[in-house]
From TrEMBL:
Pfam families cross-referenced by the UniProt entry: His_Phos_1
Species assigned in the record: Enterococcus sulfureus ATCC 49903
Active site: residue positions: H11 (tele-phosphohistidine intermediate), E88 (proton donor/acceptor)
Signal peptide coordinates: none
Binding-site residues, substrate: R10, H11, G12, K13, T14, M15, F16, N17, R60
Protein name as it appears in the record: Phosphoglycerate mutase
GO CC terms of this entry: cytoplasm
TM regions (residue ranges): none
CDD domains according to UniProt: HP_PGM_like
Molecular-function GO term, any one: phosphatase activity
Length: 235
C-alpha cells in the first residue's frame, strides 16, 4: 500500500482577501493575481501523482481546484468531489466586514487590549470560536464542538477514503483559518495563526488513523511553478 498523503492548499487570493474583508461562508472570486498565483502552483504540482481531489464547496475553492487541475496532465483520471465540511469558519454577522473590525472586536470580547496582545498571550481557537459565536447577532456562527467535528471528520474521511483505495496523494483545497485550525486539532501545541499564504501547501501523512504534519504552509510549489513558467517562456 502506498503512503497516504494530503496536499492541503489554501485557495487563491480573492477580492475580499485583497481589500481585507472577512470571508468565511460568503464568497468572492479570485483576482487576476490570485489566478496567476494558482497557475504557478498548478505548474509546480503537475508532476505529483494525485489519486483524488477534494475542494470545499465555496466558489473560490472550486475555482482554485479547477485551475490546478487545468495544469495537471492526468487531470481526467483524478476523482474530484466537493465537501462542505472543509469550508472556512462561519463568522456570522461579522461576514463581509473589514478584517480590522473583526480582529478589533474579538480581543475586547476576550478582555485583551488589542489583537497583538491577544496573539502574544496565546489565545486558543476555542476562545476565538466562542467569542465569534457570542458576538454574532445573526445566530449563524458555529459552536466550537460543531466546528471541531466538521473539520476533523471532513479531513479524516478524505484520508480514510484514499487509504481504502490503496493509499497515494490527495489534493485538497480549503481555507486559511480552517487549515490552521486543523493543525491545532492534529497537535494542540500549534497556536493560532491567521497568516497562511494563498496557494500555500500543507502536507499531511496519515497512518493508523492519525495525521502527521510533514510541511506547513509551504510556497515552494508556487516558486517551482514560476521557474517552470520562466523556462517555458525562454524556450
Amino acid at each position: 500500500m502506498a503512503k497516504t498523503e494530503l496536499y492541503v492548499v489554501r485557495h487563491g487570493k480573492t477580492m475580499f482577501n485583497t481589500i481585507q474583508r472577512v470571508q468565511g461562508w460568503c464568497d468572492t472570486p479570485l483576482t487576476k493575481s490570485g489566478v496567476q498565483g494558482i497557475h504557478y502552483l498548478g505548474l509546480g504540482l503537475k508532476e505529483t501523482p494525485f489519486v483524488e481531489a477534494v475542494s470545499s464547496d465555496s466558489g473560490r475553492a472550486i475555482e482554485t481546484m479547477r485551475l490546478i487541475l487545468g495544469e495537471h496532465p492526468e487531470a481526467s483520471t483524478i476523482d474530484y468531489r466537493v465537501d462542505p465540511r472543509i469550508r472556512e469558519w462561519c463568522f456570522g454577522s461579522l461576514e463581509g466586514g473589514y478584517d480590522a473590525e473583526m480582529w478589533g472586536v474579538i480581543p475586547r470580547i476576550l478582555n485583551f487590549p488589542d489583537y497583538d496582545e491577544m496573539i502574544a498571550k496565546k489565545v486558543t481557537f476555542k476562545e476565538i470560536c466562542e467569542a465569534i459565536y457570542d458576538v454574532d447577532t445573526a445566530n449563524w456562527a458555529e459552536t466550537y464542538e460543531t466546528l471541531s467535528h466538521r473539520v476533523r471528520t471532513g479531513f479524516e474521511d478524505i484520508a480514510h477514503r484514499v487509504e481504502k483505495k490503496g493509499g497515494g496523494k490527495a489534493l485538497v483545497v480549503s481555507h486559511g483559518l480552517t487549515i490552521s485550525f486543523l493543525m491545532h486539532l492534529i497537535n494542540d501545541e500549534n497556536n493560532v495563526r491567521v497568516d497562511i499564504d494563498n496557494g500555500s501547501v500543507t502536507r499531511l501523512s496519515f497512518e493508523n488513523g492519525q495525521f502527521t504534519i510533514e510541511d506547513f504552509a509551504s510556497t515552494k510549489f508556487i516558486e517551482q511553478g514560476k521557474e517552470i513558467s520562466r523556462t517555458l517562456l525562454q524556450s
